[in-house]
Amino acid sequence: MFIIHLDYYVPLEVIDQHLEEHIAFLEEEFKQGHFLASGRRVPRTGGTILSNIPTKAALLEILEKDPFKQRGMARYQITEFIPSKTCKELDFLKAT
Known about the structure:
Layout: E1 2-8, H1 12-17, H2 19-31, E2 35-40, E3 46-51, H3 56-63, H4 67-70, E4 74-80
Antiparallel strand pairs: 1-3, 1-4, 2-3
């Protein structure tokens, strides 16, 4: 499992101009089952994505499709983590 933090490199006005394309990218990855959660950070300096992709190489390939990445508008910090304890509702996330 991976946590992806996006940090914006450009003003929010520029981000907003391409937000619909970014959301379409996210929606496709949710449909494919690659992403579990996503959202804006507060303050709005970027976003966070939770992914269940099995390998970092596969995740990097997917992130190349993000319009924010393609336009050099965001930097991506990727943290791999293995959930070992969760609340009951998130038991499906635990590593087996």
